[in-house]
Amino acid sequence: MKVQGRYNALDVAATVGIKRFTLASSVNAHGLVYSQGDLHFPAFPMTEEMDTFPSDAYALSKAEVELQADSFARSHPHMRIASLRIH
């Protein structure tokens, strides 16, 4: 539901010509809070450029929404989209 809802919001925004869109993401896009087992990251601190390694459903949904936002930004150059990874 979360992923589909964000897609719908991005789609409507693009369709009606909204130029700026901000969505709330989470540091959990990297797979932190609900992960099971040991976590391994290439470096600390984590940066926006690092690949995500979601290991649970919540992290996967956050990473997917960020990928959707990236896709919309590429296909709708009039839009500026910010994904805020709230801690």
TrEMBL record:
Q: Which domain of life is it from?
A: Eukaryota
SUPFAM superfamilies per the UniProt record, alphabetical: NAD(P)-binding Rossmann-fold domains
The cross-references to InterPro entries, in alphabetical order and at most eight, read: Epimerase_deHydtase, NAD(P)-bd_dom_sf
Per the database record, which ranges form the NAD-dependent epimerase/dehydratase domain? 3-86
Q: What is this protein called?
A: NAD-dependent epimerase/dehydratase domain-containing protein
Q: Mind giving the lineage of the organism this protein is from?
A: Eukaryota, Fungi, Dikarya, Basidiomycota, Agaricomycotina
